[in-house]
């Protein structure tokens, strides 16, 4: 038997909606919004009633079919259920073991990542130190080269003076040397 209570509730709702619509100014925006809301409410209520009328008999039939099937096979299912319980226990043990292995693997990965990060930091420090060493070697080599060039120019200038400037090219070299060399400032002599 179908209960008339949902229909009565819908009828009461419709009466309330109609009373509300009469109180609001017809043709205004609020009137249209309330009219559409009332229509949507009625449609939803009718849809729920139809769904209830269709679903309830189906559920009733399914419940009866399940009851008949369980009565027929109840005795035959007990060994299958015990076997299923045994399988689920085995799966639980396996998953626990796999979980432990995964956690151990994860901790190993974290440790390896930390070690690689530490090694990378040490390598970066070593590279920075090596770079500083190369800069120092380059500066020393430049200073040595400049000192050697100055010494060679000085030796060349001294030999030219000792020779007495035999040709013109030697004179031009001497003039180049004078313009290129920086004369050291003289320190005042100490009083004796």
Describe this structure in words.
By secondary structure, this protein is an all-alpha fold. The chain is built from three helices and no strands. Helix 1 (5-23) packs across helix 2 (29-163). 0% of the residues are buried.
For the sheet with most strands, the description reads: none
* Helix/strand order: HHH
Q: What proportion of the residues form beta strands (DSSP E)?
A: under 5%
Mean pLDDT comes to 78
Number of strands: 0
> Which term fits the overall shape?
elongated
Q: What structural class should be given to the helix and strand makeup?
A: mainly alpha
By DSSP (H or I, 4+ residues per run), the number of helices equals 3
Radius of gyration: 52 Å
What helical percentage do the residues reach? over 70%
Unreliable runs, pLDDT <50, ≥5 residues? 1-8, 184-192
How is this structure best summarized?
The protein has 192 residues and is mainly alpha-helical. The chain contains three helices and no strands. The protein has helices at 5-23, 29-163, 168-180.
What is the element layout, followed by pairings?
Layout: H1 5-23, H2 29-163, H3 168-180
Helix pairs in contact: 1-2
Keywords, separated by commas or semicolons:
mainly alpha, 192 residues, disordered C terminus, disordered N terminus
């Amino acid at each position: 038997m179908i209960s008339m209570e949902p229909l009565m509730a819908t009828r009461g709702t419709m009466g309330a909606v109609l009373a509300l619509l009469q109180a609001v100014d017809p043709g205004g925006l609020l009137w249209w919004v309330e009219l559409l809301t009332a229509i949507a409410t009625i449609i939803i209520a009718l849809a729920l009633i139809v769904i209830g009328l269709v679903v309830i008999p189906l559920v009733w039939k399914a419940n009866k079919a399940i009851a008949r099937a369980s009565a027929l096979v109840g005795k035959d299912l007990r060994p299958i259920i015990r076997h299923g319980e045994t399988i689920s226990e085995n799966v639980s043990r396996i998953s626990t073991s796999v979980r432990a292995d995964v956690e151990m693997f994860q901790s190993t990965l974290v440790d390896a990542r930390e070690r690689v990060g530490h090694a990378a930091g040490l390598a970066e420090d070593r590279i920075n130190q090596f770079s500083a060493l190369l800069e120092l070697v380059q500066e020393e080599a430049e200073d040595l080269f400049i000192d050697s060039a100055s010494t060679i120019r000085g030796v060349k200038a001294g030999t030219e003076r000792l020779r007495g400037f035999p040709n013109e090219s030697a004179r031009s070299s001497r003039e180049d040397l004078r313009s290129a060399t920086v004369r050291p400032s003289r320190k005042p002599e100490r009083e004796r």
